[in-house]
Write a structure and sequence with these properties.
Structural class: alpha/beta
Largest sheet: 5 strands, parallel
Strand content: 5-15%
Order of helices and strands: EEHHHHEHEHHEHEHEH
Radius of gyration: 17 Å
Oligomer: single chain
Number of helices: 10
Shape: globular
Helix content: 40-55%
Number of strands: 7
Distance between the termini: 12 Å
């Protein structure tokens, strides 16, 4: 009998690129929440929005506040919706991403969701704008407001999968797909198999060195991706 698989996708530089709109939306939301123009931004690669927002507050000498972050989540997602046309013009769905999602959707033993540093609201907004949201189960997954430590998101996603669809996934049946060494390390530390996609700034060697079991240059070979996930 074929074993069920839980596939957790990273979003930025794995499925889509925002073409710089993401940083601008962050800056706009930051300014609206704090009343301060953003002069710099914390490192974002492989990190959760909770950490990025907190460290960006620190950089501007603004005390951290749960209320600030709650407001930021709403304003950031709204910013993506308001700039949807611009996001489609400047950003893009990465090569092969749509076909890969569709191919996996046709596999009854595969459940797809996301594991991302984005907040749930921002993740849904971006993927909806690019027409990818319908292939991913947002009742599952784990997001940038769930925990400051990205590795902890793997267990959160598995727990949500169990509560939502009644399937108890294990490290052997959980696959994380991402484009950075930080994604790979989070997946390995969290207890998941990791497939690296060298579609961002990190090379295939970087991803292999971090511990990815399989690395693809992009998502264009959906047949090979399916084999890596299901065997």
């Amino acid at each position: 009998m074929t074993t069920n698989r839980l596939v957790l996708w990273d979003i930025d530089h794995t499925l889509i690129e925002t073409g710089g709109v993401g940083r601008e939306v962050f800056a706009d939301a930051f300014a609206q929440v704090t009343g301060t123009t953003m002069q710099g931004m914390a490192e974002v690669t492989g990190r959760t929005e909770l950490v990025i927002f907190g460290e960006t507050l620190d950089m501007h000498g603004i005390p951290r506040s749960n209320e600030y972050f709650t407001q930021f989540i709403k304003l950031q997602a709204r910013g993506y919706e308001l700039r949807a046309h611009e996001l489609r013009l400047r950003g893009r769905v990465l090569p092969g991403a749509l076909n890969a999602l569709q191919a996996l959707e046709r596999r009854p033993t595969v459940t797809q969701s996301v594991l991302t540093g984005n907040t749930r609201a921002a993740a849904q907004a971006k993927l909806r704008i690019f027409g990818l949201e319908k292939y991913l189960d947002f009742a599952i997954g784990a997001f940038g407001e769930d925990d400051p430590v990205r590795a902890q998101l793997v267990a959160i996603a598995r727990d949500r999968a169990y509560r939502s669809i009644g399937v108890a996934h294990t490290p052997d049946t959980t696959i994380l797909i991402g484009d950075t060494p930080q994604d790979v390390i989070a997946g390995k530390e969290g207890g998941a198999h990791v497939i690296g996609i060298a579609s961002g700034k990190s090379s295939a060697t970087d991803l292999k060195t971090a511990g990815a079991e399989v690395v693809f240059p992009d998502l264009t070979d959906s047949a090979a991706l399916i084999r890596a996930i299901t065997t």
